[in-house]
Write a structure and sequence with these properties.
The protein has 13 helices and 15 strands. It is an alpha/beta fold and about 400 residues long. The chain has a seven-stranded parallel β-sheet with strand order 4-3-2-5-6-7-8, sandwiched between helices. The protein has a six-stranded parallel β-sheet with strand order 11-10-9-12-13-14, sandwiched between helices. The longest helix is centred in the middle third of the chain and has 15 residues, at about 210-225. The radius of gyration is 23 Å and the shape is globular. This is Mitochondrial fission protein ELM1. One of its GO terms (biological process) is mitochondrial fission.
Length: about 400
């Protein structure tokens, strides 16, 4: 006889959009909840190729309908993917479904509820909202929906929303001054957060003490012998709210040369968004310097090893994710380029300064130790999820 599991949550579904920065926030929360090996990932994908790359700003349903019409007249040259349903028992190697189906997930939640208990649904990113809200609408008694990042619609359609404080920047006096009157009705949020909104400082991620211990073990032979202090420099790329180019690259190059005397080793990494001309400049300036190592993108990504072994970080202001991860270590973090940021990122940088993060000037003594309370957004958000679940009479099976 099958025993009823009541309100014990034993599994989760992640609704992702294929963007690492969004999906990693869901993974980080799952890890903090103890469910990182018991979930399946269902992706919401946008049409690609032809004119579709110019239509990414459209709402996803409209974009797909338009693509369907275009496909009738312009046959696609892209081979269809083999989509395999993955609503099976969770395993350490999580399943990926390349096309999320809200009806299928809701049906799975309802039909397995008596045996396996409620289903936790985590989603992040604008394109996931139609799917995540449909799942909750179709199985309201069987799922608990957590939407990460502000969804820009009525928050009552979610059980819990987790979003950075700077998403509420439009409600501040400074934010209101920057919004043209005609656009104010389209800018979210339209009201202050209520009791089912969890505010974080930065982005959720998977960097916690256990992950750092694992990275330290994996990278010990390569990074532990390096001359100290080890300064890690993470360079992102210009964004809509943080514009910069060669001017910042040249400034950063000069500042790094000025602090070389106080460093044992400098290790530089670029992101996928780093402009080629920026990476080329730093390669030209430092590739011949034995004190400086620049990761060229080949081989294993040293990012987690850097987080574990760095004595200090210099990070460009554009990357909320990289800054959030580094700040979770409590080690010195210096930000470069914050003065070039606008809109919500200005508010994020203000929160970092309040935490204890400093601006990089090129006059620092990197060997000087200092710290601040480590940023612990994922653990704090997980606690709020557990509290919200308790109000439903549900709990996480750890």
């Amino acid at each position: 006889m099958v025993q009823f599991q009541g309100g014990l949550i034993r599994r989760a579904v992640v609704v992702g959009n294929g963007i690492a920065g969004a999906e990693n926030q869901c993974f980080g929360l799952l890890q903090a909840l103890g469910l990182s090996s018991r979930f399946s990932l269902h992706r919401v994908t946008r049409p690609r190729g032809r004119i579709n790359d110019c239509l990414q700003w459209l709402p996803l349903p409209l974009h797909k309908k338009l693509d369907h019409i275009l496909t009738r007249f312009l046959p696609s040259t892209v081979e269809p993917q083999n989509l395999t349903p993955a609503l099976t028992s969770p395993s350490p190697s999580f399943h990926i479904v390349e096309e999320a189906d809200a009806k299928q997930i809701a049906t799975f939640a309802r039909t397995t509820f008596h045996k396996d208990g409620p289903l936790l649904v985590l989603a992040s990113g604008r394109d996931t909202i139609p799917v995540s809200t449909s799942i909750r609408r179709l199985a309201p008694q069987n799922v608990f929906l957590v939407q990460i990042q502000h969804p820009r619609i009525n928050l009552d359609r979610f059980d819990l929303v987790i979003t950075p404080r700077h998403d509420y920047y439009p409600l501040t006096p400074e934010g209101k001054q920057q919004i043209p009157w005609l656009l104010r009705g389209w800018i979210t949020p339209r009201r202050p957060p209520d009791d089912h909104v969890v505010l974080t400082v930065g982005a959720l991620h998977r960097v916690d003490s256990a992950a750092l211990r694992s990275a330290a073990s994996l990278w010990r032979d390569q990074l532990a012998p390096l001359p100290k202090p080890l300064l890690v420099v993470n360079i992102g790329g210009p964004t809509r709210n943080c514009q910069y180019g060669m001017d910042l690259a040249e400034q950063l190059t000069d500042m790094l040369q000025n602090v070389l005397w106080s460093c044992g080793t400098i290790r530089i990494s670029f992101s996928r968004r780093t402009p080629a001309k920026v990476s080329k400049l730093l390669l030209e300036k430092f590739s011949a310097n034995p004190q400086v190592y620049i990761w060229d993108g080949e081989g294993p990504n040293p990012h987690m090893g850097h987080l574990a072994f760095a004595d200090a970080f210099v990070i460009t202001a554009d990357s909320v994710s990289m800054l959030s991860e580094a700040c979770s270590t409590g080690k010195p973090v210096y930000v470069v380029g914050a003065e070039r940021c606008t809109w919500k990122i200005v508010d994020f940088q203000k929160s970092l300064r309040e935490l204890g993060v400093r601006a990089f000037t090129g006059k620092e003594d990197i060997s000087e130790p200092w710290s601040y309370p480590p940023l612990n957004d994922a653990a704090n958000a997980a606690s709020r999820v557990i509290e919200a679940l308790a109000k439903r009479g549900w709990t996480i099976c750890t």
